[in-house]
Amino acid sequence: MKAVFLDLNSLDCDDLNLAELKAQFTEFNGYPATSQQQVAARIAGADVVIVNKVELDGAALAGATQLKHVCIAATGTNNVDLQAAADNGITVSNCQAYGTASVVQHVMSMMLALHTNLIAYNEAARNGQWAQAEQFCLLDYPIQELNGKTLGIVGYGNLGASVAQLASAFGMKVLVAQRIGGDTVAGRVALEELLSQVDVLSLHCPLTAQTRDLIDADAIVQMKTGAFIINAARGGIVNEAALAAALRSGKLAGAATDVLIQEPPVDGNPLLADDIPNLIVTPHSAWGSVQARQRIVEQLTETIEGLKRGERIRVVN
């Protein structure tokens, strides 16, 4: 069985053990990256294609006459045409819940950094500002406690529930939004009602037609002045221009995002401007702990082992 991994460097930074995965195949070719123009040639003759973010459209899948299975080294499946795969007899699997601990840790790190003004204080200590203080300490930037604050969570899967658990340990009250476009669930709060009550809004829902621009200028107006927004879900759920404006005006006390609409932001982005106060932007790295990425390798291996036994493990089409 021949396999190709089209964008191996998006997963492995030369710090993962790939031995068991490679051992599943008689031939394994791992390409650091693959352009869309290279896809057809590289998957020709492969029985299994492993991909993280490279797109596999209908034409590419139809042209890969030997292809039997596609393994997505991530949870999102939007880069693979699932219907075209099914029409061509190709099963598609993904990886699930591998990065919960990593993402939750990242979300709480961003929340804590914002509330303690950690980045500003680190810079003040290093640039000489502290050395000029008239007393032993420097308290130029507001410090707030999470204890007693209200956290609103949009998207209550593994990630949202785990963030809620840790936030509760910090003494936060947690409100969970009703599923966007879904059935009403007892104990959850309509988003419009939730927005006005929360001190921190944390997003963990998928990007869909219903959640695109979910947190726009109108939604931010409904929030408390001085609230915070955390987005470790998907770019596009928060309107980036509206967020930048709300931070500049002081409507929001701070925000943190691990995601942007375009990644990487080769055409620039409103949230990368130098004049936006108390904003933390990280490069879609929340998922990327060594442990989480190794779990992806383990799940890929498990999927292929199941495929050999005729089992459908995490098949999505």
From TrEMBL:
Family recorded in the similarity comment: Belongs to the D-isomer specific 2-hydroxyacid dehydrogenase family.
Species annotation: Amphritea opalescens
GO MF: NAD binding; oxidoreductase activity, acting on the CH-OH group of donors, NAD or NADP as acceptor
Annotated protein name in UniProt: 2-hydroxyacid dehydrogenase
Domain D-isomer specific 2-hydroxyacid dehydrogenase catalytic: 19-313
Residue span, D-isomer specific 2-hydroxyacid dehydrogenase NAD-binding domain: 108-286
CDD domains: 2-Hacid_dh_4
Keywords: NAD, Oxidoreductase
SUPFAM superfamilies reported for this sequence: Formate/glycerate dehydrogenase catalytic domain-like, NAD(P)-binding Rossmann-fold domains
Record InterPro entries: D-iso_2-hydroxyacid_DH_PdxB, D-isomer_2_OHA_DH_cat_dom, D-isomer_DH_CS, D-isomer_DH_NAD-bd, NAD(P)-bd_dom_sf
Domain of life: Bacteria
NCBIfam families: PRK06487.1
One Pfam family named in its UniProt record: 2-Hacid_dh_C
